[in-house]
């Protein structure tokens, strides 16, 4: 079982930056990808970014391309989401997830079977 703990959320003005962290503990060998998702009130959970364990490939939602960067520190078992030029529409609860992702379906929450508790990001 993998445990995921997020941190780094908070409140920021539009145009500002935040960096989210997600630290994993436990066995991750059956998973090949970690992703960040977000969910705003009244909206469905959406994939924001993902990073694959092999090769380090990254993927992003169109809405965050050029503003967000996902990265991984293998030594610390930690995945980061650097968020720059934040907009009010980025306001949401952000979750990290780990899973065995097939094909290009990194954005589908059904591909992930381990989830963190979430961290709130508010942009005003």
Describe the structure.
The chain is mainly β. The protein has no helices and eleven strands. It has strands spanning 2-7, 10-12, 18-26, 33-39, 46-52, 58-60, 68-73, 78-83, 92-99, 112-115, 119-123. Strands 2, 4, 5, 6, 9, 10 and 11 form a seven-stranded mixed sheet that branches. Strands 1-3-8-7 form a four-stranded antiparallel sheet, with no helix packed on it. Strand 4 (33-39) and strand 5 (46-52) form a beta hairpin. The protein is globular. The N and C termini lie far apart (37 Å).
Instruction: State the low-pLDDT regions, or none.
Output: none
Helix content: under 10%
Helix-strand category? mainly beta
| Radius of gyration (Å) | 13 Å
Residues in β-strands, percent: over 45%
- Count every beta strand, where a strand is a DSSP E run of 2 or more residues: 11
Topology:
Layout: E1 2-7, E2 10-12, E3 18-26, E4 33-39, E5 46-52, E6 58-60, E7 68-73, E8 78-83, E9 92-99, E10 112-115, E11 119-123
Parallel strand pairs: 2-11
Antiparallel strand pairs: 1-3, 3-8, 4-5, 4-9, 5-6, 7-8, 9-10, 9-11
Summarize the structure.
The chain is built from no helices and 11 strands. With 124 residues, the chain is an all-beta fold.
């Amino acid at each position: 079982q993998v445990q995921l703990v997020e941190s780094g959320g908070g409140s920021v003005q539009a145009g500002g930056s935040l960096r989210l962290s997600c630290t994993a503990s436990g066995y991750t060998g059956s998973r090949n990808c970690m992703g960040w998702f977000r969910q705003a009130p009244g909206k469905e959970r959406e994939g924001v970014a993902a990073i694959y364990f092999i090769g380090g490939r990254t993927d992003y939602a169109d809405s965050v391309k050029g503003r967000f960067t996902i990265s991984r520190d293998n030594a610390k078992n930690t995945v980061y989401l650097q968020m720059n030029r934040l907009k009010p529409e980025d306001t949401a609860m952000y979750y990290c997830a780990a899973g065995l992702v097939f094909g290009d379906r990194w954005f589908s929450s059904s591909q992930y079977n381990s989830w963190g508790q979430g961290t709130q990001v508010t942009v005003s």
